[in-house]
Amino acid sequence: MLGDFYLWIKALHIMAVISWMAGLFYLPRLFVYHVERSAGAQMNAVFQTMEEKLLRVIMNPAMIVAWVTGLMMVSIPGIIQWDAVWPYTKFAGLIGMSWFHMWCARRRRIFTEGGNTLTGRDYRMMNEVPTVMMVLIVLSVVVKF
After folding, report:
1. Which of 34, 81, 112, 126 ranks highest by number of CB atoms within 10 Å?
2. Which of 68, 74, 93, 70 is nearest to 145 (CA)?
3. Which pLDDT score, from 0 to 100, does residue 3 have?
């Protein structure tokens, strides 16, 4: 039955991944600005609101939809070449992206608790993680190595 809806599932998956990746790129950038430009309590509150809304309203639902639609596609016979390497490298990239998502959520909680010890440079460095995961996933799916 899922095979009849494959293209719809795939389209929804792509939209969810784009939304999720946008959040994964933007949230660490907000953390940079939060560390470097939130001198007063009012700015701190503004950054915390922005970070919380981005995570709760965009990133979490997008991640869930990406995972669900991805698992739906995997369950359709003939879609995945299980004897190739690419499904496993894609899965490794997906685990890395999910870990980074959870790391960002934890960092947001730490900001809320007032315990941030990382610098803007630290967050800039971590902002490269989703790019590496994206490259791994896209090359895995498109090149199918």
Report:
1. 34
2. 93
3. 75
For residue 1, is pLDDT > 80? no
Confidence (pLDDT) at 47? 94
In the chain, how many domains are there?
1
List CB contacts of 66: < 8 A, sequence separation 6 or more.
13, 16, 17, 20
Closest CA to 99 of 132, 71, 74: 132
pTM of the model: 0.91
List C-alpha distances in Å: 45 to 11, 87, 114, 116: 36, 42, 11, 14
Domain span at 74: 2-143
> What is the distance between the alpha carbons of residues 26 and 85, in angstroms, rounded to a whole number?
31
Contacts of 104 (CB under 8 A, 6+ apart): 24, 27, 28, 31, 55, 59
